[in-house]
Amino acid sequence: MHLRLEFEAIRAHILHRSPKPSLDTVLFELVAEETRLRTIVTPPIVDQSSVNVAHRQDNRHTRVTCY
Questions:
Q1: Which of 7, 25, 40, 65 could connect to 21 by a Cys-Cys bridge, CB 3.0–4.6 Å?
Q2: DSSP states of the chain as a string?
Q3: Contact 2, 11 (CB under 8 A)
């Protein structure tokens, strides 16, 4: 069993501690990291080909004049 790549930093942090933390501490830290990762809001990716679809039928209206 292994952790996903998103948890590599916390995994390395846990494994390089001396003394090693208890299982309860490790689980608490992993759950906290999972919660933190869920709260990060990533901006949506906009498909540029769908921008101004209605204007494409009008040959006089270009992307330059639209903005």
A1: 25
A2: ----GGGHHHHHHHHT-SSPPPHHHHHHHHHHHHHHHHHPPPPPPP-GGGTTGGGGG-TT--HHHH-
A3: no
Residue in this structure with the two tokens 């790549």, named with its chain if needed: 5
Kindly report, residue by residue over 26-35, the tens digit of the pLDDT: 999 999 999 9
N-terminal to C-terminal alpha carbon distance within the chain: 51
Domain coordinates of the chain in residue numbers? 5-66
